[in-house]
Specification:
Length: about 300
C-alpha cells in the first residue's frame, strides 16, 4: 500500500474539489506513541481499516476497529486515541465538507448530483450518527481506492468520476448505518470474548493451541480466523494486547517496571523492555519518564 496525504489548499490534486478537505492512506509498522491525539475536524471524516486493530474514541466513546470496519466522525466531534497511540496497521481516510444550513441537517453540495430530498435524507441520517463504528463495510474501502486512483490518474472525465464516487460513499455509508443497529458490532462474539479472557489473565503464558481450544476451533482454523480478522498471527495479536495493557500501567508510577512485565505476561523485565522498544521505539522506563514529564 502506498502512503499519501492530500490536503485542501496544499495539494494540487484537490483544487477542483473544494469539498474534499483531505484524503490519505497510512501504513504503520510500529506502535507510535503520542502520534494520534484526539482532535476535531471541520468536515465529516470516514476512516477505513485495511489491516490491524485500532482502539479509537469517537465523541469520547471508545471503539475497537478491525479490518473492513469504518470510523465515521461528524464535524466538530473529537476523534483519536485517548492514549495518543497509533497502533500497528493500515488505514485510509477522507474528510468531506458538507453544507450546514442554520436550521437543518448537513447537506451534500451540488457536486453530489443528489436531489434536494435525497440530500436532506442523507444529511439527517449522518447527523444522527447512531452508528459511528460501521463493521464489515468493505465497499467504503473500494470507493476510497477508486477516488485516489482518479485523483492520481486525472484521465478524461476524472472530475465527474470523483464527484460520483464521493456521493456514492455518502450513499453507501447512510445505507450501512440504517442496516446496523447502534450496538450491532458485527465482529464475532467469540473473539471479543477471547480478548476479554486474555486481558483478565495476561500473566498466563498463553499458547496458540490453548487459545484455539477456548473458542472451540482447531489450531489451523484459529490461526486463519485471527489472521483474517486482525491482520496478525495469534501470537502477535496477543503481544499487541500485552503492550497495550503495559502502556496503561506505565502511567502509574507506583508500579515497578518489573511487576508490569510479569503482570502482562513477559518472561522478564529484559524481555519486556526489548519487545516494548521494538514496537514503540522507547524502553519502558523512557516512556514512563516522558509521560511523567509531559503531565
Amino acid at each position: 500500500m502506498n502512503q499519501f496525504a492530500l490536503q485542501q489548499g496544499i495539494s494540487a490534486e484537490l483544487r477542483p474539489f473544494p469539498y474534499i478537505l483531505e484524503m490519505g492512506a497510512k501504513k504503520n509498522g510500529a506502535i507510535q506513541l503520542d502520534a494520534f491525539p484526539t482532535a476535531t475536524g471541520e468536515g465529516i471524516r470516514i476512516y477505513y481499516i485495511i489491516e490491524g486493530r485500532f482502539e479509537w474514541c469517537i465523541d469520547h466513546q471508545p471503539y475497537i476497529f478491525y479490518p473492513g470496519d469504518v470510523a465515521l466522525v461528524l464535524p466538530g466531534n473529537a476523534f483519536g486515541s485517548d492514549k495518543g497511540i497509533l497502533e500497528i496497521g493500515a488505514f485510509t481516510w477522507i474528510q468531506l465538507r458538507l453544507q450546514k444550513p442554520a436550521n437543518g441537517p448537513m447537506l451534500p453540495g451540488a457536486w453530489s448530483g443528489l436531489s434536494e430530498s435525497e440530500g436532506a435524507a442523507i444529511g439527517k441520517i449522518l447527523s444522527l450518527n447512531r452508528s459511528p463504528a460501521l463493521s464489515r463495510f468493505s465497499e467504503a474501502g473500494k470507493i476510497l481506492k477508486c477516488i485516489h486512483a482518479e485523483l492520481l490518474g486525472q484521465e478524461i472525465g476524472y472530475q465527474a468520476r470523483v464527484n460520483h464516487q464521493a456521493a456514492e460513499l455518502l450513499i453507501q455509508t447512510t445505507r450501512q448505518m440504517t442496516r446496523q443497529s447502534y450496538s450491532g458490532r458485527d465482529f464475532p462474539k467469540t473473539f471479543m470474548h477471547l480478548e476479554k479472557m486474555l486481558r483478565q489473565n495476561l500473566a498466563h503464558q498463553w499458547a496458540v493451541e490453548e487459545m484455539a481450544a477456548m473458542v472451540g476451533m482447531s489450531t489451523t482454523l484459529f490461526n486463519e480466523r485471527v489472521k483474517s480478522y486482525s491482520g496478525f498471527t495469534p501470537i502477535n495479536y496477543l503481544i499487541n494486547i500485552r503492550i497495550s495493557e503495559a502502556i496503561k500501567l506505565l502511567k502509574r508510577p507506583e508500579i515497578s517496571v518489573t511487576d508490569i512485565a510479569l503482570d502482562t505476561g513477559f518472561y522478564s523485565s529484559q524481555h519486556f523492555s526489548t519487545t516494548f522498544k521494538k514496537l514503540t521505539g522507547f524502553r519502558p522506563s523512557e516512556y514512563r519518564k516522558n509521560h511523567l514529564r509531559n503531565k
